[in-house]
Design goal:
By secondary structure, the chain is mainly beta. It is built from 1 helix and 9 strands; from the N terminus they run αβββββββββ. Strand 1 and strand 2 form a beta hairpin. It is globular, with a radius of gyration of 19 Å. The chain starts with a helix and ends with a strand.
């Protein structure tokens, strides 16, 4: 009886470990475009692309730096943005977030203070955090052309 219970526990542990989501830095990338510069602010679009084989649901956080202060009031309700300190931000899904299937992308626009004039105004230092303190750096950030 004890042997059967032990065998059952080993199979359960093996199954749980084998099903764990272990993304790597090639599974996600960001793209960022300046849509328009306005008087004292600019609008831009940030897109993150899910190139993994897993659905990206409500259990992630995207940490990044953006030199310009983001107007949190312009963030859509599907995500929540927290200004941590200086240029450091945390983006995470809200209850309204629709899970992102493999090969799909989530795109949203927002406004920031000041003009965007150089590629150095783009997000940098981005990484995803998943449950279990699983940190995945974003090694690719594509920046659109400036007009």
């Amino acid at each position: 009886m004890l042997r059967n219970w032990f065998s059952l526990m080993l199979i359960a542990v093996w199954f749980m470990v084998g099903c764990e989501f272990s993304p790597d830095e090639n599974d996600f990338y960001l793209s960022w475009n300046v849509d328009r510069n306005m008087d004292g602010r600019f609008e831009s679009t940030l897109t993150f692309h899910n190139e993994s084989e897993q659905t990206l649901a409500g259990d992630w956080k995207l940490w990044f730096n953006l030199m310009r202060m983001i107007d949190v009031g312009t963030i859509p309700s599907e995500v929540e943005l927290t200004h941590i300190n200086g240029s450091f931000y945390k983006l995470e899904p809200a209850d309204e977030f629709t899970p992102l299937e493999p090969g799909e992308a989530y795109r949203f626009s927002f406004e920031s203070l000041g003009p965007a004039i150089l590629e150095s105004d783009a997000p940098v230092g981005a990484y995803f955090e998943f449950p279990g303190e699983n940190i995945v750096p974003v090694s690719r950030i594509e920046v659109g052309e400036f007009e």
